[in-house]
Every structure is written in structure tokens, then in C-alpha cells.
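Quick one: structure for this chain?
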Amino acid sequence: MELEQINAIERATRYGRGEVLRIGVAVIFLVGIMLYVRAIGADAPNIVLLVAAAMIGGYMAMNIGANDVANNVGPAVGSKALTLAGAIAIAAIFEASGALIAGGDVVSTIKKGIIDPGLIGDANTFIWLMIAALLAAALWLNTATYIGAPVSTTHSIVGGVMGAGIAAGGPAIVDWGQFGQIAASWVISPVLGGAIAAFSLYLIKRRITYKRDIAEAAKYNVPIFVAIMAWVFSTYLVLKGLSKIVEVGLLPAIGLGALVGAGIWWLTRWLINRHSASVKNSKAGVDTLFTIPLIFAAALLSFAHGANDVANAVGPLAAINEAVLQGGVAAKAAIPSWVLLVGAAGIALGLALFGPKLIRTVGSEITELDRMRAFCVAMAAAVTVIVASQLGLPVSSTHIAIGGVFGVGFLREHLKTTYRQKIDEIEAHYGGEDRGELERVLKEFEEASFEEKGEILKNLKNLKSRSGSQSVISKRDRKALKKVYRQDLVKRSAVFRIVAAWLITVPLSGLLAAMLFFTIRGMLLP
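Got it. Here's what it folds into:
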């Protein structure tokens, strides 16, 4: 066989070998959970159910790490502020730290209060219900990760609990008002996240990149934007990430965040002034100033995510553990340290093994992200969660982050299309009569600040058109150009795939959970 053919075969099988290795490590992790729980719970009744639930909880945690964590680090990787390996290392450490340090001692066993546990009197039925819900959510997350669709783990477990609950106790068991709020979040989360991210990016452009002296504008404005981010993230971390350790109200959290923000403003300003000679007068030069803030944003988002979303994996597991040991159904359940450890280790391992696919999807497959755009996505994630929490709006961190990516992408489309239209106006004004003058005006327009561009266009409109206002580019060609911009800046196929996955998450998880509940109950009934 030719050497070239052998190399081709090796390249074709390399992916398969890597996939087998990842699956093998995941299986070893689940077997380790089985042995560990069997050892610590040897005298517990229904130990087989507890072991099975622990393994499913570990599987769920790995899928959370593979799918949901990409939202925290994907923009940083896509903007090249972090390498893929560096992002995985940072996220794994801070996700696990958030779960173990601030994961809490007590969680709601019925996520978001979607069903009434009082209508499930039998402990065994409750255990089967939670196992079915947990397994259904994990299977759907696994499928979504495989197809490259970042989805909400919270919505997955809500759908699973609702579907298994209906199978166990009928439609009356569901709090349909609560479900309506969750359904509303499908729209609220991405729209709010996208709007805040787009607004943040527009402010950065107006204050920095649309100025004639970009470097000088950056020296003044970048410390302000970084300080705002530090303020927002400090408030976010206190309210969400550390709420299980110490209870702090909104105003004290905002005040503490403001103090941190002031300190970061002074430090950033000092650093930029110290290295001002190395800041180039270009967008690329200013873009590098957002590298360190993005790294900190990825770490803090991962910590807060681990502290909050670990409940998606260990909440049902804690409920099953309580039911097995106490023989009853509880609305709240203490989380044993071993349960938190399963959740933390599973999230970190799932991220390391299967996270790169979704990280690439979020970071580069929807729209091109530089560090300024990624900074705005991170800012939107923190601001939206704080605002929504105080207003009592149920939102998904996944939908917020992806909405932020959509927001900056669609803003870029709008700005580029608008810029092209302004160039058309200038070209139409001169109509090809004086090419030298046209090129001079176009160069002046390109180098002008945002305000100066407006003055140039205003002056041209006040003058009589030299060519009857006939545009050099026809309307048909302009529409075609707009279509090209849309295809290049935001990939519609990615948008449709992700939105479709969002819409079917709850019903599909619910249907799958109901089927699993009937299957499990049928297998265990005498």
C-alpha cells in the first residue's frame, strides 16, 4: 500500500480514536461514581436506585459542562483572548470551585417549583420520577451538544420534571402559571441579552473606534468600560455566585461592586498610561486592551455558573438521596458533600472532554468576534441576569449569552450596510465627474470621526447634486450587497438551528421523561 494512502487512512481514523478515548474516560468516571456511592451507602435502603441516580447525575453534570459552559468561555476563545486549552483549564477550575464553594447546602428538589411534590405521596414513585427527569434532560443535552446547539440546561431539567410529573400524577400536578413564565423567558432572555450586547458595542464604537485618534480615545474610555464591567461582575458575583454563602441585598451588592469598579478603573488607567506608547492608533491596537478583562470575565462567569447551575445536576440527585434515606418526599433537600463533588467533577470533566465543539460554535460559528465584541457579550450576560433577577423574570444564561452573540452580529450587519449606503450617497453626489475629488472625499470620510462623517454628509446634501442624485450602484445591486453582508456576518443556518433547539427543549425533554418514567415503573413493578 502506498505511503500516501496509509497517511490518509490514519487521518481518517484519528477522530474516531479520539472519540473512543473521550467516551472511555467518561465511562470510567461513571463507574467510579458507582463504586464510590456503593461504598459510602452500603447500609442504605434502595442502594441500587441511589447508585443508578448518582451515575445519571454524573452523566447530567458532564453534559452541563459540555454544553452550557461554552457560553462562558466561547466568546473569549473566538476572539483569541484565550486559547482553547487555556479556556478549558480556567473554566474547569472556576466551575468546580463555584460548585464546591458556593453551590449551597440546600436546593429545591423540584426545579423552579414546576410541579407540586405534595401530590406524589409514594417515595418510590418520586424517585422514579426524578430519575426519569434527570436522564431525559441529560440525553437531550447530549444530543444538542452532538448537533452543535447550545441549549438551556435549566429548561431541559424543567421539561424533564414536568413530563415525568404529568406521567406520574396527571396534568394537574404542573404549575402552569410558572411554566408560562419559563416559556416567556425563551423570548425575554435572548432579546434582552442581544439588546444589551449591541448597545454596549455601539457605545464602544462611538466612544473609541469611531474617533479620529483611536489611541487617545482608548486611553480615556477603556478604563471606564473595564470599570463598568468590574462593577457589574462584582455585583453579579455577590448576588448570584455567593448568595449561598452570605445573603447580601441589591443595594449593598451594588455599593460593593462600585468600590471594586473604582479600584479597577484606577488600576486600568495606570496600566494603560504606563504602556501608552505600545497602544497603536487602530482598532486592532485597541482590541488588545480588552484581553485581560475578557479572561477575568470568563473566570467569573464560570464561577457563578458553577455555583448556580450545579443544582441542575445535583438537585434531583439530592432529592433522590433524601427520599432513599428518609423514605419520604421533600420539597427541599440537604446536599451531601459527595453529591456536590459528583456535580463539580462531572461539569469539569464534561467540559474538558466534550466542550470544545460548543465553544467553537459560540465563539466563531455564529459571527466573527473580536475582543471588543466578546467583551460586550460578557457584559450583557452579567447585566441581564442582574436586571432579570431583580424584576423576577425567569431567564436562561445560555439564551442570554447566545442572544448577545446574535446582537453584536446583527449590529455589525446594520452598521456595515448603513456605511455602504453613505458611501453610495457620496458616489452619487459626484456621479463620476471628478474622480480625484471623489477619492479625496472618500478618504476624508473614512478617516473622520462619527460626528465628522455626519457633517460631511450634511454638507453634501446642502449642495446641489452634480449628477441628478443618480447612485453609482443600482438598487438591485445594493440589495444583493446587503444579502452578502447578512450571510457573511451572521450565519443564518446557525441561528435557525439554535432557535429550533431552544423551542423544542422543554417539550422534547418532557416527552422523553414521560416515556422513561413509564418504562422504569413498568420494569420495577412486581
